[in-house]
Structure of LacI family transcriptional regulator:
Amino acid sequence: MATISDVAKLSGLSKTTVSRVINNHPYVSDKKRELVLNAMKELGYTPNPSARRLRGQLTTTIGVIVPRIVNPFFSYLVNSIEQAAYKMGYQVLIGQSYEDKEKELAFLNLLKTKQVDGIIMTSIENDWDMIESYKEYGSILLCNDYVNQSEVPMIRLDQTKGAYLGVKHLIEKGHKKIAYCTGGLFDEQGKGKDRNQGFQKALHEAGIKINPKWIFVDQHTIEDGKQVMKQILEMEDRPTAIFTGSDEVAGGIMIQAKELGLTVPSDLAIIGFDDQPIAEILDPKLTTIRQPVDLMGEKSIEVMIEMLENPKLEIQNYELPIELIVRQST
Amino acid sequence: MATISDVAKLSGLSKTTVSRVINNHPYVSDKKRELVLNAMKELGYTPNPSARRLRGQLTTTIGVIVPRIVNPFFSYLVNSIEQAAYKMGYQVLIGQSYEDKEKELAFLNLLKTKQVDGIIMTSIENDWDMIESYKEYGSILLCNDYVNQSEVPMIRLDQTKGAYLGVKHLIEKGHKKIAYCTGGLFDEQGKGKDRNQGFQKALHEAGIKINPKWIFVDQHTIEDGKQVMKQILEMEDRPTAIFTGSDEVAGGIMIQAKELGLTVPSDLAIIGFDDQPIAEILDPKLTTIRQPVDLMGEKSIEVMIEMLENPKLEIQNYELPIELIVRQST
DNA sequence: TTGTAGGCGTTATCAG
DNA sequence: CTGATAACGCCTACAA
């Protein structure tokens, strides 16, 4: 591999001058600049990022933590982040936390050793204090997930509104017996609390009481959805509609419902979350809440790079639009 | 961030001794080793990978090129690669080529600058000669895609057999008018040639002639599948079954078929490829060819690390099993 | 068994 | 405008 010295030698100039050209510093005569540029081309020279990192320069690499890449929501998010980053000349290092604290910390450690300039976190596993302690080593940005007391930029959606819109839609369709299925818990705090609030708000407004038996927590996969449906079938008093925290769970419910001889939406109306590709594949097509994944990725990179270039940037939060997509399952 | 010098100072020893401990070299007395270990712990010391890279050491980072991460086949593949790598203490840098030669080369350049020890390519865009020229800078391994004249390890599947099994299954079901849908071309060479061969072989064995009108090339998405179905409907002489290069295209075909009032499989039998999650979501469930993605990822990492640790390793190819999963769409 | 010194490729500082 | 030099953190001949 050609080094800066090779370029210097070939062009008959010093490393310093070559470096100036590489980094677009002023005070280089056009002639010499030309000379250097030619030599660089001739040797196929690429600056060595390791050396730059060692010198304390930026790495032009951004880390992204996702719980699991096979979740379409996250693979689309990573996709848009990667594309936006590529356009800006940045690389993306991906890490899956698998909802494991250790893996998350291991990834955050990349900041310490200047392997990445910053990390975009799309989910949070450890306590915020723990994570915040890494801010000293590099930039951290939250995209999708968030915390209240944070001192980092956040790109987020109004999850409360998303759930509210969905449940209100069900109510408008005449449903009063509405079940709820979340990937988190049904607590005041903790995962999924915003959506919980939206759900409660919509019911409250319509004067409908929550039936605790119709609350399903910690549901994630298609398989989970199938199980939920089986549980519902066994109930004496069944819901007529169900709001779900993911298209996949909604899909599982729908598949199982059909298998059990129920008709969607007349026997059971179903609403998903994310507007993943399967929403249009399911039959009937799934009514769902769309999250603007592409926007989230672009914005995250935009803000991250701003932060990197201007470390004193004022911390801001960005809220992106979330909308209801009505299809046939409601 | 603490450096090796800090550890040396704190432990009252030299950098050399500390380095020896870090790298498990012999000739360090137990006492001093203890001393160093304590100092390391106290300072929360982590070796700086950039410095190591600069010194020409391994980076414990492996690059993976995929065409697009949102394709479930690749996101599952990346997932299994990442998991296997993590277990071995390696990091994974992901790049999307978007089937673009430039992007692919940009990623291969990471080898030149020792940013990654090796690269796993799951697809190939540039001419092989071009790619092979990067072998000088680091290890390259092919997983999924392959070339004939290659001098790198390949983890691959018998695509010919996959297509053959699928088409044969259709024939056994009594179909004689069989359409074919590929993501590549219908050439002797080029993308998808193996599956083409399997398709042809199965028909040939059954004495069935190929109808060129029923060959659809360069089809990738659900939307593509829908278009294919529309084209089929317009035909005077329609096929009764279709073999498809991806579950997504198959899904599009199925959705559109139902929309047009056709019944699957009685009006049209459909067979997919990959056994992605949507195969079970579609109604009727999709008969498809399963590719053992997890195995592919694990094996790729296993072989890559072997290669890294023993550069003189004999080049081997590995063929993994591929199987037909019969469901309801045929 | 331990330590000294030099260099990997880059850029900032300082002197011309 | 240009160039010599030191330093980033690590590893390894070589010396002791």
DSSP finds 13 helices and twelve strands in chain B. Residues 3-5, 15-16, 19-20, 22-23, 47-48, 50-57 of chain B lie near DNA strand D (CB under 10 Å from a C1').
